[in-house]
Amino acid sequence: MTALYFTAMPTADAETIWNGGNDAYGHLPETMVSDGPGHPCRHCLKNIDSGDALYVFAYRPFPELQPYAETGPVFLHQKRCERYAAEEVPPPVLTTSPNFILRGYGANDRIVYGTGAVTEVADIPAYAAELLRKPEVAYVHVRSARNNCYQCRIDG
């Protein structure tokens, strides 16, 4: 099986928000308090505990603007957290739902058509490995199956 690496939002992106910077739309992040499960931090890839302050902001996990550069809402602990480091292990955030959308992207950061599929959590490693064996797929995004929000990236 292909070795998989689950990667979180880069610390530089989180630092921008923590240091008072703007999101992908040029706006300051909104602040709210978690009411429990359903607020996964994209930096540590853990759920934000009930009562903890968080930021919600527009995030674009692509290097530049282009038609396939999806932008959407994500959450980040308001208090600095450590970036997810156990990249070879599926992160805790992937236990918050029974399934997620996996979608392959090419080296040009465009969707590879026909790769998107709602995938049961237990099947994520196998399907991600299958996608990454395709020469046209450079990486995979994991997204919410209900809201299409970006969760993390998988590389092989």
Automatic annotation (TrEMBL):
Which InterPro entries is this protein grouped with?
DUF1203
Q: Which domain of life is it from?
A: Bacteria
Protein name per its UniProtKB record: DUF1203 domain-containing protein
